[in-house]
Design goal:
With 586 residues, the chain is α+β, with helices and mostly antiparallel strands. Helices cover 42% and strands 22% of the residues. Helix 3 crosses helix 13, helix 13 runs parallel beside helix 16 and helix 14 packs antiparallel against helix 17. It is elongated.
Length: 586
Amino acid sequence: MLLVKDIYIKGLLSNLVIIFLFAATIALSVVFLSLLQYNKEDAFINTLKSNNHYVLQLAKYIDYPREEVDPYTNEKYIENGPVVFYEKANMADIAKLKSIATDKATYYPSFFFEKNLHDFTSDFIYTDQTAFQFYARGFREMIAVDDFSSFHLQLLYGQKPQKTNEILIYDYMANNLLYYKLFNGDMTSIVGAKLIDQDTGLVLNVSGILKSDYTRYSYIDKDRNSHQFEETYLTSLQVIFCYPEFVELVAKENQYDSLFKCYFVNNSTQTTTNTNIKKAKYVNLENTKFLSTVENYEQERGVFVNMSTVAYLMRTALENVNEEIALLFLENYFVSGLDCFYDTSIERSYLIGFSHRILGVVVEGLTEPVLYCYTPNEDDFYMSNGEFRQIYLSLGTDWKANRATLKNFEFITHSDSFYSENPYYYYEGYTDYTSYGLLIRDADYYLNDVKDFSRIVEAIIICVSFSAMFLFAILTIKKNNYKIGVLKTMGASNGNISLIFGLQIFLTSIISYVLSIPLSFITMREINLTFVNRINSDLVFFSINPAAQGIILGFTILSVIIAASLPLINLYFRSPISIIKNFSKN
């Protein structure tokens, strides 16, 4: 028994260096085998899980072969592959989505919500048309949640909404409220506070603030280059979460929006007059009474003003405004300024400059100046608050179930030959439109090169690993030839000898494997950081694959059995004396 113990202790001490070398080799094997098994679906799910991201914007896509024209040669050719249509989803699509991913999936409809921060204060907000890419100037969307008990986004402060006009906002928007000085103090001072629309009286009670990683992207304010991932991510934070009843309140009050900056320019003197004038949206002119208009006013995009605006700018009393003064006003003024432009699908809100012709003066009862924006085709330019915008998918906390759900929304692509063989192929599907998913899909082509490289490296590591294991077994047995000869002289069976020395080799390998586990995770984390640090993102491109760990464990055990068996079997057929004599010669 003491002999066996002596063999174990001395063997382990002498093999410490070998254990760590084996651990490093096994760790690299696991890492490169995991890289070899990379796929974008796993990367997407690991990223969502890492970021506690449970609410995903969906987009509709159509996959079909289509005829295109080369702009340089004018030759026709067939283009294929999916095309994403961000504006095509509607409420009816929710029923289709439930049939795709079963009724277990939860969907949130979202609605247009153009509310810039100036709507909630009468104080001056400094704005610049070109600066502040990082800071958002307003909300862009409201997402209706029927049941907040199944809402899993992480709360930073406060609580989930309990009443109709209570809302959740992201910490990013809370930071913007503080930056533009709508509130003083820190984010906790916003919880329970009210945002009151200065034009309509709509009240938004902020019941809670959601956590995000917005601070990671503050650098984009210093760099004027395009940052698609960063801006798409920040755009996703310009939303509020509310009850469906709140959407109805917004739709009812939807008439006025504030302008960030508006001034009237005198054509002859080029002098400007600043005003905090309200902006309204005109849908049609059928029942509108005018004091005066320009010719063909129904055919042009421009603005109308009310009599109060004319009185203010012409410096006269409201009762003195007549057709003659109105006509003089139209001849002498146009309107310019800064407004928020909201893309109706995916982009952030930007300040844009505008310059509009004044088309006419409206006769109506408001005593405050109002600017009525008009375009011959209302759908081309304006959306009304409360209009349906898009659909979101809400995930649960069970990531195994989430994986099964998200499989229904994979962005499937086919080979060119597939479209050639199926010229009438047509498929409508839905996929995510998150900053994470977009970047992972864009990077997929390049990451396939990583897989090819990993395949070569993995083959080399496995060959080196097996050779090293085999060499280690031979040297271990050779070093202990004398002891083996003695044991055989003492009557030890081949089975007992195999158990003693095979177990030594096996324990060395298992200890190496256990040590390789943290080494593999550390190595994979560094590889992942190397990729994502270039874009400063929160993506998890690569992760240790449990299947890879199992495969390498199986390979390690098999290698040990083969490596230990070959030299031991050679000794089984030799006499104890020949083994001892051979050891003495060496």
